[in-house]
Amino acid sequence: MSNAYREKKKATTYAVKTNCTVEEFLSKVMAGKSRTSLRQMLSWGVVRVSQKPVKRLDEVILAGQSVTIYPKPERQFEMPKSLKIIYEDDWLIVVDKAAGLLTIATETEKEHTAYAYLSAYLKFYKKSDKIFIVHRIDRQTSGLLVFAKSEMVQRALRENWDDAVVSRKYTAVAEGHFVRKQGTISTWIDEDEDSLKMYVTRPGVGKRAVTHYRVIDETFNLSLLELELETGRKNQIRVHMKYAGHILVGDKKYGSRVDVLGRLCLHAGEISFYHPMTGRLMRFESKVPPDFLKLFRKD
Cβ(74)–Cβ(125) under 8 Å? Predict the structure, then answer.
């Protein structure tokens, strides 16, 4: 997790003029500290003589050496391995989510979500009481997510999403080999109220969806793809790959019978957008999952 956002306290360095013990020196520069408190400082590793951590109060410091006293270590929020903060400022948090972690709560899962963890993180450091969702990716999709720290910033991004977002790229593993190694899939898609599945429909019904794809590599009956979204519809890539006859590996919801990695093989690997408050172009990347690449090794 990046802690660069939090202001860090500075260390203090002293020049030692006469030989003395660590205890004698600390008692002089930190008057009023008990012996127990001084021992605790040594256990934290915050007292260093010539940059080497001190272990005992009776160690001797020689004239000419330096003593550096660092601030007490801050308590750290324990973010789960399934979620990593890669960027944070006063308005936004960008995270890298593992496959299997929900973006937001469902009826059956309330606690183990990116939203819940980030809310707890902000409360822990007393930055804010709330986090706001800008967009979502599916539970079994890994990769980049953007959250806002206020409703105002959330609204600014959501209402201008198409103009703010410069690019959103994904990496995926699909079944079969493509005849055309790159192209564009443009359809209209809608949601079935009973199954909650998205499906391709006739023009004018639902919402227009456009996905650009490029084949990066191929192996036995599998294709590694780079996909770029021109529009951002629910399950857009998954629906378009089924429509193209190349269902994503592990996508049981849309009919995949190939599950070599035990997950949906879809990764949100890049997002570029204009910062809603500063206007700066922000670009973030998440590496392709190694398991995806292993499938295409030609050993």
Answer: no
